[in-house]
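Re: export button greyed out
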Amino acid sequence: MVDTTASEVEPPMAAQPNARSGASKCAYTHDIIRVDDLNIAIDLKGTDLNVIRGASFRIPAGKTVALVGESGSGKSIISQAILGILPSVARITGGRIDYREHAKDEAIDLASLEDNSAQRLALRGGKMSIIFQEPMTSLSPLHTIGNQIGEALELHRDEIAPDEVKKTVIDMLDLVGFPKPDAAYSMYPMELSGGLRQRAMIAMALICHPALLIADEPTTALDVSMQAKILSLLIELQDKLGMAVLLITHDLGVVANMADEVVVLYHGQVMEAGSREAIFRDPHHPYLKALLAAVPDLDMDYGAKLHSLRDIDHEIPVSMRGDIEDRKSHADEVILRVRHLCKSFIAKKQKGWLSKEQTVTRAVDDVSFDVRRGECFGLVGESGCGKTTTLKLLVRALSADSGSVEWFEEDRKIDLLALHGDDLKRFRPKMQMVFQDPFSSLSPRQTVLNILKEPMEVHGLLQGEKGGRSRYAAELMRLVGLQPSYLGRYPHSFSGGQRQRVGIARALALRPDLVFLDEPVSALDVSVQAQVLNLLKQLQDELGLTYVFISHNLAVVRYIADRIGVMFRGQLVELATREELFDNPLHPYTKALLDVVPHASLDHPLDFDRINRDMASEGRNWSPPFAPLSDESDMQMIRINDDHFVRVIVGTDPATLVQESK
Amino acid sequence: MLRYILYRCVVMIPTLVLASIVIFTIIQLPPGDYVETYIGELLASGESVDMARVEYLREEYGLNEPMWKRYLLWIGNFVTGDFGYSFEYERPVSEVVGNRLWLTILVSFATIVLTWVIAFPIGIYSATHQYSWGDYGLTFVGLLGLATPNFLLALVMMYFAQTLFGVSIGGLMEARFIDQPMSWDKFMSILEHLIVPTIVIGTAGTAAMIRRIRANLLDELQKQYVVTAKAKGVPPFKRLVKYPLRMSLNFFVADIGSLLPNIISGAEIVAIVLSLQTTGPLLIAALQSQDMYLAGSFLMFLATLTVIGVLLSDIALGFLDPRIRLQGGAEK
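Workaround output, generated via the alternate export path:
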């Protein structure tokens, strides 16, 4: 029997050297779950759609099995079937899911249990539990963290005193890394950050010490540094509590660092299954090979091209060809010059009876950089570092507190922050934006045709020409590799990748010189991500576009950007060409960011111990000259060479920095 | 929270001042005044008019004064608890309204309770069994209830009660109890007469409430935290009540604010059709005859109750929903 309360668990085992290197702590005993020829159908208004077709795999007790596949491959449905939380339209049409907690136990066929039967309710949450992708929505906003975690304990542990519930919950919160577990007990989810909410979710799933934890894309909604921390927490907890983990993900980098066994799913069928070594070192199935080739990696050659599973054929409209030559002749000239850009947000909070507490957040703090015509300038940093705010300042969606932004074309120089009214409107077509979330950035009530026509209407493009706008919209569709016959459809009938291409087409409708891309691929699957990245690269090349590309994923930025700025808490800490930044990173934050990117290969496992020890990604343990010596020290970007700048204390000799890093 | 409540109370004052100005202006808008309407009525019935008395009335109630003076006079007295004098009933407004107030509150309260008792289970059933035959059937009945005008339903029910059961259901009690002190028989008579008005007044409200509960609960049922609760192994009923139902109550609590004035105004048209001795018909008669102090003070009651109701429901929302409680004072 597994220990029942977190307080009784043995102290953390500090010296577990790289826990994922081969066999984990407990030796193989038996399979806790055996899925045998499972079939699941979804009822679509009378006709059955078979979403899982004859899937079979196993989950050994205490091990981690990764279920890998693109969205729509059916990986979440399988986990829902195991837990008995299938949506009402889905039902199991055949096969077995045998569950055995201990080797000697009689197997229970989960597939034959009613969702709300007593046996099911006892297993669900008690012996098996789940954490979801979206930490923002998976907790009830009306109940405290303590209440929601304690509920699971009260349900599955008979006759437990309220005091003991509270104590156990607080111990669990401590275990999952809450800085102040006592205070967190009575906090509401909205008072917590995304990372902490996910930790609360993990605490809720593990409070009853289940034999199986299903992690459904547990880190997809988090940025890389938070992802590394959550993954390391999962490994640590698995070592302490000994549960089996079914990890559902599309991220092969996560799989390479977490899984003992891997099951590859495609359209509801298991394509390939085996140990982690077999899957990564010796992939057989063409689908798996293609998936591996689609992941951008930090070890790729700089010039290498990602192989997407389905390439996009697209075509440049005749009407756009005129601009291209003109743009290319001005390549490498500065197009946008940003100097000392600042923006603060003031949050006022009631404190006591009359006074208000003001907290000033410097979202963008003295940021300076140039964007050159024809290049892709990348901005990286974790969520909340100010990269999106910077973008909003540049497109004048927010107004800057101070600083200057200048635009250069031909012989003219335009002060962007000084533009107003009609001048600003006339200028806007030159800069367009593509947004992160392809689902919420397109109006669900407009056809794609209307979506593409809107910028033309706003700016009076092709006015008076009958049918001209529709013709141009069709050309735009071909430009991003979509069929013009889709113009009459609404966004909901497109996949995420297709929607994002509609978003790109909308941004290109006004023939901008500069396109701002705000995490354009972070909501997409690996295979679709490669497809959209390749399309963006081709369009940039063919149309002579300039990009500013925002991402928290260094591997993606490395694939597409020519020069990269690294942002931390509103400041630019390092700015370099791609090769310089990745071959010779100087700033501790950049190095920390590089450390937390999971590689989709077995040769570079994440060093979780170091990530947890260094905390460099949180701005701690930086040594001078990168950290100020005292509050009065002035920090400044200094030039290492023409391609490389880094933020250090004023007066630091560049030569010493280069020396140290060698 | 306390600070917020105080702030809201202070803000009520300018709101009420504005409301009183609007009410007074609108009442004064139709040409003429009560005295003219009174003369018209007398002449129509062939009686002679005593001009001296007319002048006396005008002088007495300040009808010759300019409008702003009359407004100040009225509102000044209103604040001190003198709600003015009803020309038509020749009694103080507080007396005229007060007599009917308790019956009105009784009818309204019974209606509200009936609405909730019927609407909640049906709304929850419809939402949890979406697109089932039960849902379709109840939706159909609900839409019928929503689409049928109350006064028509009142007439139909009166007709059937008379022809089928031989009962007269007009009024709120048998005629012999009117103006009698309360007794056991009178109480039973009132209860008996309460059934039909309650059902008639309640139908539209019930139907609307069912639709709103269904829509709100359906939204919540699809949320991720419901799946979380299911995955925790919470049994179905507790899962429903603790999470999505509690969440969908926000609209309901916000609605309580508008109940207060409804309790007093008491379904005017239906009350006239069923000849209920509630305040509703009183208000309509007062507006028709330009009985300005009665109408004005009555409307001012309603305005005050609305403002208080909204405040109460906002406070209740704050207690119910931590997101409102904790972020209410925050600014960006």
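Chain B touches chain A at residues 3, 223-225, 227-236, 242-243, 246-247, 320-323, 326-327, 329-332 (CB under 8 Å). The button fix ships in the next patch.
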